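dude i think i finally got it to work??
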Amino acid sequence: MRALFWIVAIFALAVGVVAIGRYNTGYLLLVLPPYRIELSLNLLLVVLLLAFTAGYFLVRMVAGTVRLPAQVREYRVARRRRKAQATLLDALQEFFAGRYAKAEKAAASSIELGEHAALCAVLAARAAHELRAFERRDAYLAQAAKLATDDDAVRVVTEVELLLDQRRFQEALTLLKSLPNKHTAALRLELKAQQLAQNWEQVLALVDQLEKRNVFDAEQAEQIRHYAQAENLKRKALDSRALEEAWQKVPARQKKNTRIAAAAA
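look at this
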């Protein structure tokens, strides 16, 4: 509709110009002794119009030439970004399809392109871990730490998860301390690390937090508490005073549990 409007407007203007030119008998007289120049007003208007058009296109051409380097840079950056995003998508598809070698290769290529480099390094680390290439995994994680912004939770949680897979729970617990605010996934990883480290009192505290966040239902949480309470009592079997203090801390309803009671006995 807009294009039709402009076409009609241009034709109307053209008709108006032709009509004015037909009845216009004016002229322009320029006297530059010893010269005398006489031009019809119609010709003068045409010359001015052509001059204006030529000047306009000349200015546009110069401006375009000046902006050309910046436009080339913007084009290259946009092309690089598109390529990086496509490579990252390929890496994700290969990883979730279980083709870890291809996933690592694609993620490494995406790191070099510089788009979401920290995330790509984490993905490459996960793929290398699945391939049991631990040296490459650690190199990717170190690279992710250097590339990360203020929020490094993705790298930290990933590294903790991979450390726990190797039962390196003390290193995992140390790393978790670097998180200022632990979300639910981080708390679940900490629970697993504390269980592996046999820190049963910390396990009990974490179970309470995770139950409030609906990670466990009441039955699951109670089973974990019973096991942790029993193991905590067993660890204090050689210290009667510590055993008595631990027993006093056990809630009354849990003292009736056979596992806990047997451990205390």
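Residues 21 and 45 are 10 Å apart (CA to CA).
im so relieved honestly
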